[in-house]
Amino acid sequence: MRLWTILRDLRNSVLPPVNSRVIIRVIMTPRWIQICCMSAALLLAARFCSGQRVTETSVPLGKALERALEQGALTGANAKAFHLKVHLFESTNPKSPYRAEIEEYWVAPKQWRRSIDTPEFRQILIVNGDQISEQNTGDYYPLWLKSFITALFDPVPNADQWNKLDAKISQITLPTGQRSDACARMKFKVGSDAVTNDAFANVCFDGAGLLKFIGSPGYSMEFHDYQRFGKKMIARRYQDDPESGTELVANVVLLQELRNPDVTLFLIAQPTPPEQRLQSLFVSQATIERAVEAQPALAWPPVQSGNTTGVLSMYVSVDRQGHVREAYPLNSDNAGLQDAARDQLLKWKLKPLTAKGVPVQAEAALTFRFETRLATNGAQPAAQASSASPAADAVPPPTVRVSPEVLQGFLVDHLAPVYPAEAKENHIQGRVLLALTIDKTGTARNIRVLTSPDQALTDSAVAAVSQWRHRPYQLNGSPVDVQSTVEVNFKLP
Length: 493
Description:
Elements: H1 3-12, H2 22-28, H3 30-48, E1 55-60, H4 61-72, E2 82-90, E3 100-108, E4 111-117, E5 122-128, E6 131-137, H5 143-153, H6 159-163, E7 168-173, E8 182-191, E9 196-205, E10 211-216, E11 219-229, E12 232-243, E13 246-257, E14 280-282, H7 285-291, E15 309-318, E16 324-332, H8 338-345, E17 354-355, E18 358-359, E19 361-371, H9 382-393, E20 400-401, H10 404-409, E21 411-413, H11 421-425, E22 430-438, E23 444-451, H12 455-465, E24 469-470, E25 473-475, E26 478-480, E27 482-490
Parallel strand pairs: 14-19, 20-27
Antiparallel strand pairs: 1-7, 2-3, 2-13, 3-4, 4-5, 5-6, 8-9, 9-10, 10-11, 11-12, 12-13, 15-16, 15-19, 17-18, 21-24, 22-23, 22-27, 25-26
């Protein structure tokens, strides 16, 4: 599929709402817009570069995907044994339940050991030949966590479906050597015999042909900061937004070749029977509907604007007891109804779903018809309208970004971060990179974690930086908010 065709299709498509998940969410995120705008800018530049060497390279999508996985998948072709540690956290709220420590010793496709540690779920999974040992603490494997595990070890689980597409992707190369990103999309239906809706999947490659984004119902991930590992280029930062306002980041804090693996790591004294392992299956909407226990139909509240009739799709994950634990928007004819649908679905109780008589987790894409009405708002009091008018017409203050070096020059009160004793004892060190806003009073606000090797170091860095004070940054003689980054390094003596 030619790049201009993809951009034309995206332009002509009825794009879904901003706070939708998976491909719907991705299409409208700033990062997705940046991908499209960069590609469009390169195409536009190519038109005006007459007389200069501007080239367009077109390859089959399946070949591009195969090459990306060969170059950038840890466990793909020509993989070498490795030891991996990953720190996963919510960038705007590092202490939220969205956090995990992941460690893997990998020798071969049938010899590896993985440990996952989250506040509510832990797992030690060992594969040694045909034997499997699985130890779980907690009864629910979160969908958001599963997405990161998939991205780390099997980044394109549906590669065969992409390979079946008779499509090509194109990249523009300018005389400067700059290359555009390239993306492909497939469209399919989700729902039941009674009602269906469109769903989408996307795959994007960066200028070097490495995987940049993969998205489909139930799984999406961004891949950043590729660095060399042996003959491969491996992403060191993974990012996903499982729900509106939640940005999850996984940093690779250790990736090294496993030269002399300890064979005792993979010993299995007693294999775990299949029926005792935690399973998660994708099921149809009809299966979910049969399992719903006397649940009333979804109620649709009045909306402020948009369509009052149409269809809405959600992606849900159900635990082994039949409770809906996660629900994310896919596509809707009115985004204003998605939160109401999510709140009601999270209260659903189903009969436990089983496979061969054993309770399993289940995932499904559900589609509903909605019919509602426009909300009737009362007249606004005159005084309130009068006071609100200037604010509505006011020009928002400019967003000013400064370099860390410039910000350092405005620092007047610098509280040194405390090196956590536990981190020292465990020989944990590294840098914590924070994005932040310095407001008009010189106070640090909106601190967001970009990279961090450990939760304890994160907590210490945020606690210190939140107390730092700066001279207000002035623009045209008036103080303004500024955005920048701060790096806090923890080094052992």
